[in-house]
């Protein structure tokens, strides 16, 4: 019987430890595991963000820039205790992409092309709420942890089939790769996107922005760039699914909106 290499034993230990690193996602209550210390992931996010600021063309004035800062700061305040130690920062990148992204630590970027789709502060509030939600839900840490677990199991599979001929090994490893992608990685990514939509809608409502515009953002996105990839092969839910989900969560979001201090006047 062959002995298990020491590095494989270390991977098994990491996998075991990963099962105990649980985190409760704010607003949804979903329990998820995180393998890396959040402080380490936050440091990685901040470092990457600084590099992006140095290498990207930034817009630092004007109507849209001021809107991003104003709306972003209100969304950040609405987060409250969901992530009190975040260092929120919002930048505006001068590139014609209909996109925005978030990095751990509270770092958010909006591309200029996004304003080809959104027409109001309320719509921007949904976009920023969605990105802020990725941070508070610790989606980056979850994705990194998932990748480490899949890689660790892959090493174990490779070790277990080491005695097979090359064609059989390639077939099994290919099946493992496809299975983990379609069965684990892609659904997990879609879960994160749907979760960020839900939490972001609550954040925007809590910040005093009308959540009724949120479903319409995905309708407009569908018109701008139709999603031609089947939902089960995509990293994101379909625009139609996202629109429907936001309609279903609307009652809770509208309650948050009615109780918002920006709406009630309790500043």
UniProtKB/TrEMBL annotation:
**UniProt entry keywords in alphabetical sequence:** Hydrolase, Metal-binding, Metalloprotease, Protease, Zinc
> Would the keyword Zinc turn up in this protein's UniProt record?
yes
InterPro entries, sorted? Mito/Outer_Membr_Metalloprot, Peptidase_M48
Single GO molecular function: metal ion binding
Q: Which PROSITE patterns match?
A: PROKAR_LIPOPROTEIN
**Top-level taxon in the UniProt lineage:** Bacteria
Location of region: Disordered: 228-267
Q: Any one cellular component term from GO for this entry?
A: membrane
Cofactor(s) essential for the protein? Zn(2+)
Kindly give the Pfam families that the UniProt entry links to this protein.
Peptidase_M48
Instruction: Name all Peptidase M48 domain ranges.
Output: 67-248
Textual note on the cofactor: Binds 1 zinc ion per subunit.
GO BP: any one term: proteolysis involved in protein catabolic process
Please list the residue ranges that the record marks as compositionally biased, kind Basic and acidic residues: 251-267
Family note:
Belongs to the peptidase M48 family.
Protein's name according to its UniProt entry = M48 family metallopeptidase
Q: Which organism is it from?
A: Puniceicoccus vermicola
Source taxonomy lineage? Bacteria, Pseudomonadati, Verrucomicrobiota, Opitutia, Puniceicoccales
